[in-house]
Amino acid sequence: MFFTLPSFISQLFSPACFWISGFRPLGNSYGGGGVHAVITRDLSRNFGSRRALQGVSLEVAEGEIFGLLGPNGGGKSTMFKILSTLLPPSAGTAEVFGKDVVADPSAVRSLIGVVFQSPSLDKKLSVRENLEYHGRIYGLSRSERKERIQDLLGRFHLGDRKGDQVGTLSGGLARRVEIAKGMMHRPKLLLLDEPSTGLDPGARMELMAELRLARREEGVTVLMTTHILEEAEDCDQLAILDRGRIVARGTPDGLKAEISGEILTLEAEDLDALKKDIEDKLDLEVEPIAGALRIEAPKAFELSMRLGQDFGDRIQSLHIGRPTLGDVFLRKTGRLFSGEEEVLDQAEVQG
Description:
By secondary structure, the chain is an alpha/beta fold. It has helices at 5-13, 76-83, 105-111, 127-137, 142-155, 171-182, 201-218, 229-233, 252-257, 271-282, 300-311, 325-333; strands at residues 36-47, 50-61, 65-69, 91-96, 99-100, 112-115, 189-193, 221-226, 237-242, 245-250, 262-268, 287-289, 292-297, 315-321. The protein has 2 domains: 36-251, Rossmann fold (3-Layer(aba) Sandwich), CATH 3.40.50; 260-322, Alpha-Beta Plaits (2-Layer Sandwich). It contains 12 helices and 14 strands.
């Protein structure tokens, strides 16, 4: 049975979900023995004639920080909602530590901590009160709550702000409280939807460092959605989603290594003519992309010298760069990664 967000929260409050009285100790082992935190097989989700997910199969190993990278509207949040039991799949299966999200949603909810893209904290309560309240929801005893809150305040550097109302905190601090709340009951899997939205680069780096510390000390597996390329670079493994399909899967470095050499980007007044002449004379594949020409080259510096000799009077600028995850997306889809894409009806799904 599946629920809307308010219903989902009310179900978490119910005694049926309070079986978590024997909490796992700190220091879980992770990453060994081929254990999978998440397995999906041919997962699909339709909204009328619109297909938000199309046959998605992936595996997330226990202890990984796994990223679902894609433009808005690509299917990331739909996957997030299915794994958090908020949305049923139209076809296929999804399991969290062996528990099926359709057949056993209560068991799945007991294993996960969820951090939504939209803030879920009570802004009128203090940091400590928000954590205290969440601990009560999950049935922690008074001593367990006290110990756990103290631990999380220290880990997320919130000790000196524990008495502050959440509504007075910066975006970065509030995000730390959200994650601390999601980890209050020691989940085995932490699901985060666009965790660094609204954060500056420094706060984003701190957030990733804190997630790695939590992984190391508690063995928690992290699965996050993101449309931020820099954030995806920090994940152990990535699946790139586009229009409901996985178009690439691997480590960030491994995916970028699929593009040999470097990327040359040229700007010119007459791009079409320059493209044709470069292809004819140098037998290269040249792609017109966003008002420029793009060339993948194993020996980019040598090629740039040749281009300068043959076409220097027609080239306005030339840039050489190493491949990025944006280049991977471009190669797999034929389109630039902008973080934005055709967005489904917001009443149906946000991807």
